[in-house]
Amino acid sequence: MEKPYISEFYPREARATGMGWDFGVGRIGAIIEPMLIALILSLCYSFKRNMEALIKSVRKAKRRNALLRLKHHNKHKKTRAVCLCSGF
What is the pTM of this model? Predict the structure, then answer.
C-alpha cells in the first residue's frame, strides 16, 4: 500500500536508487521476521510479556519513522526557501 508514496520521498535524481534500497531493505525484513518471531517464541516467555515487547518495538519504530520524516521535511523546506531567495 505504501509503495506508490515512497517515490515522493526521494529526490527525482536518486529515485530509482532510493526505491531499490527501500525494496531491498523490505525484503531483508521479510526474511528475518519469521526467524525472529520463532526465536522470541522459543524463549517461552508468557504471552503478555511477548505482546508488551512487540508493542514497545512498534512504538519505537513509529517514533523513529516520524523523526526521520520530520528531519527530511525540514531539510527540503530550508532548501526551497534558499532557492526562492536566490531567484531560482
Answer: 0.45
Calpha distance 7→81 (Å, rounded): 22
pLDDT 10s digits, 30-64: 898 889 888 888 888 888 888 888 889 888 888 88
CA angle 19/7/86 to nearest 5° reads 115
Distance CA 71, CA 79 (A): 12
The overall longest dimension of the chain from CA atoms, in Å, is 64
- C-beta contacts of 57-61 below 8 A and 24+ residues apart: none
Provide the grid cell at 27: 525484503
Q: Look at the chain and count its residues.
A: 88
